[in-house]
Design goal:
This protein is of the alpha/beta class. Helices cover 32% and strands 27% of the residues. It has a domain of 173 residues: P-loop containing nucleotide triphosphate hydrolases (Rossmann fold, 3-Layer(aba) Sandwich), CATH 3.40.50. The strands form two sheets. Strands 6-7-8-3-9-10 form a six-stranded mixed beta sheet, sandwiched between helices. The chain has a four-stranded antiparallel beta sheet with strand order 2-1-4-5, covered by helices on one side. The model has no long low-confidence stretch (mean pLDDT 91). Bound molecules: adenosine-5'-triphosphate and magnesium ion.
Length: 253
């Protein structure tokens, strides 16, 4: 089976032959069902895809299609009912809670729709927080300053979340997601609470950070417009992949 190329590999060969296609995440036949009263509901019904290192991918689909459930599973926050998620060739669905916590702390950064910043801490302190969990190189304060500069907030280091606009708070949350230098950043509806202009700013920031850092970004959105900023859109309808679309002319590195 090794010489059988996936559609994605064929696409890269055709359109971007000089790209080294390292698979950073391999999602295999994920299902999720939950009890609901006396019945079970099938939320995810067999989802498979691969994500390459440095890709910006949108998981897009209507409300209730299973996007957040899927993100929770690929981020190691939730278990699938069946199937595997391999991150750098290691199956995270078979890990103990302790091993999973290490993967989440070292390999994955998370961004949420409601920013989830700690209200009593400054922007800089919020970005430092993940660096006090586990072992990380360098000083938390200089790392936090460097990241807030990268997201354009060098002038807001001492502001608390209530003193920042929604767009600025989301940029702090993105800086925080990068603090531990993860390979993959996973964002659930990162523009969901923002107006159109601030939403566009956050999406261009993500695209720009992808270019500057070479990290992999996976976002979930119900908005096709938001998804069109990504390299690829994986469309989910009713717990199944309906289509995978590559945006023409967009590079996949
Ligand atoms: N803990 C749970 N118990 C029962 N049903 C659940 C649970 N979590 C999610 N669901 C159901 O699973 C389906 C998928 O939910 P999910 O939150 O993954 O959708 P989504 O695509 O993220 O939607 P949205 O765009 O509104 O955020 C929904 O029908 C939801 O009601
Ligand atoms: Mg959701």
């Amino acid at each position: 089976m090794d010489d059988v190329k996936t559609m994605q590999e064929q696409h890269i060969e055709l359109f971007a032959p000089d790209i080294k296609s390292k698979v950073v995440m391999d999602v295999r036949a994920i299902t999720k069902s939950l009890p609901l009263g006396r019945e079970r509901i099938d939320i995810l019904k067999g989802i498979s895809f691969q994500i390459l290192s440095g890709e910006f991918v949108a998981i897009v689909g209507p409300s209730g299609s299973g996007k957040s459930t899927l993100l929770g599973i690929i981020a190691g926050l939730d278990n699938p009912t069946s199937g595997q998620v391999l991150i750098d060739d290691v199956d995270i669905t078979r890990m103990s809670e302790g091993q999973l916590a290490t993967v989440r702390n070292n390999k994955i950064g998370m961004v949420f729709q409601a920013y989830n910043l700690i209200p009593t801490l400054t922007a800089q302190e919020n970005v430092e927080v993940p660096l006090y969990v586990g072992k990380h190189k360098g000083s938390p304060s200089s790392r936090a300053k460097e990241l807030l500069t990268l997201v354009g907030l060098a002038h807001r280091l001492s502001h608390r979340p209530s003193q920042l606009s929604g767009g600025e708070q989301q940029r702090v949350a993105i800086a925080r997601s990068l603090a531990t230098d993860p390979a993959i950043v996973i964002a659930d509806e990162p523009t969901g609470n923002l107006d159109a202009r601030n939403g566009e700013n956050v999406l261009s920031l993500i695209a720009d950070l992808r270019d500057k850092t070479g990290k992999t970004f996976i976002i979930a959105t119900h908005d096709q417009n938001v998804a069109s900023h990504a390299d690829r859109a994986i469309r989910i309808v009713d717990g199944l992949i309906a289509s995978i679309e590559s945006m023409a002319g967009r590079s996949i590195q």
